[in-house]
Amino acid sequence: NEAARLQDLVDEMEVELQQKQQQEQSAGNQEEITRLRNQADRLEQQLADSQSLRRITEAQLREAERRLAGLQATITQLEMQLQQQTTGVGTPPPGLAPPVTGRSARTSSMGLAAAGQSMVSSQQGLPPGHHM
Question: Which of 125, 120, 114 is nearest to 61 (CA)?
Answer without folding.
Answer: 125
